[in-house]
Amino acid sequence: MRKDTPPRIAVVGGGLAGLTLALALHRAGLECRVYEQAPRLGEVGAGVQLSPSATRLLHRLGLEPALRSSAVLPEAMEFRRWADSSVISRGLLGKHCEERYGAPYYAIHRADLHRALVEALPAGAVRLDARCTLAEEGPDEVVLRFADGSEAVADAVVGADGIHSVLRQALVADRPRFSGQSVYRGLADSRRIPALVAEPRVLLWLGPGQHFVCYPVSGGRLVNFVATVPAGGPGGESWSRRGRVADLAEAYEGWCADVTSVIGAAEQVSLWALHDRDPIERWSTGRITLLGDSAHPMLPFMGQGANQAIEDAVALAACLRDAGPGELSAALRRYESLRRPRTTLVQERSRGNSTAFHLPDGAAQRERDAAMGRPAPEGQDWLHGYDVESALTSHQPT
Ligand SMILES: Cc1cc2nc3c(=O)[nH]c(=O)nc-3n(C[C@H](O)[C@H](O)[C@H](O)COP(=O)(O)OP(=O)(O)OC[C@H]3O[C@@H](n4cnc5c(N)ncnc54)[C@H](O)[C@@H]3O)c2cc1C
């Protein structure tokens, strides 16, 4: 039981990472304020895959009814060949995940997840229109400065402000790295592609230089798709903009009918240049730490950025809950030392997939496909079977 006054915690950024942290802190009996730059809360119109390592945590936070009512539980994840849609590998999700990992694998619309988090938070937990421009750390507190001239004071500040993080600048002078890839993202009406949604699946078609992913969301009414294209194609390095379905169709000309039928069902697409950053040695100072994409922005080629952010959030809330008087800085070190090795591995493997997924047809591609076709049942245990709360109980900070 804590004997001191609970710390005042400020979270910069109200994305999936910041809101999950706010909820986890609230459930741990700690108060925090989220400062979000946008005038209203929301998420991009796209899907997100949630692994059992994250869904077990969201369920413990009380979100199971909301998630089950809107998410789809895909039966399997299939990798396929770009030209003829032949199956390279099929890994079971659905019941298999619930039985093996004790938690489901969800495909969900981001807006549904975001809404579930917001609705679970106490009123007034988020201040909107609050763009943080600077965090000044003193011996006893941190002063946050905002673009409108206002200030806020906190004992601890968490930068959950995404890949362009202002708070990260307190730790390292790096910049986002362009991957050489852009992605088109969109949602299609599943009634226009019934064959692809008859069995709910996450489908990935791998081809030379690019790949295409789709899965149902919103109770199966919509199909979310993400299509990579190499740099130099339409989109260049711009962070995000409206894309053109016709450009996407051109980029995937000659691909199998399954892929072109999804593109044919799309009415609009957005276009994002993909960036990540190198892993960094430290996420925390004495009173400031990072969470989610601000700490470990990664390429989306394992579908893990949000999952890792959710794991971060629950771990950080537990470390802050357990901290006694004068132990704030030790709590941030405990959090960071638990999380950094795992998120670094996921960042690196996500980068590795940008080569592996895009091999030209030939010997290396055939070798890759043969290896993918022999999946070990325990192959995903390290990712999906992980329970960050159990890991924390046995963790010794380094
Ligand atoms: C194409 C694609 C597909 C993906 N698919 C998956 C997937 O299937 N599964 C998965 O787990 N992950 C996936 N990801 C990754 C996932 O989307 C991100 O890792 C996750 O959304 C990061 O959340 P975040 O809250 O850390 O950052 P963000 O979502 O970037 O949120 C940051 C928030 O901070 C606010 N902010 C920024 N600067 C300031 C400031 N100075 N002051 C105040 N507020 C500020 C922003 O407005 C925003 O609300 C995918 C990513 C992409 C690009």
UniProtKB/TrEMBL annotation:
One of its GO terms (molecular function) is monooxygenase activity. Residues 347-356 have a biased composition (Polar residues). Coiled coil: none annotated. It holds the Pfam family FAD_binding_3. Keywords: FAD, Flavoprotein, Monooxygenase, Oxidoreductase. Residues 9-349 form the FAD-binding domain. Residues 347-398 are annotated as: Disordered. This is Salicylate 1-monooxygenase. The lineage of its organism: Bacteria, Bacillati, Actinomycetota, Actinomycetes, Kitasatosporales.
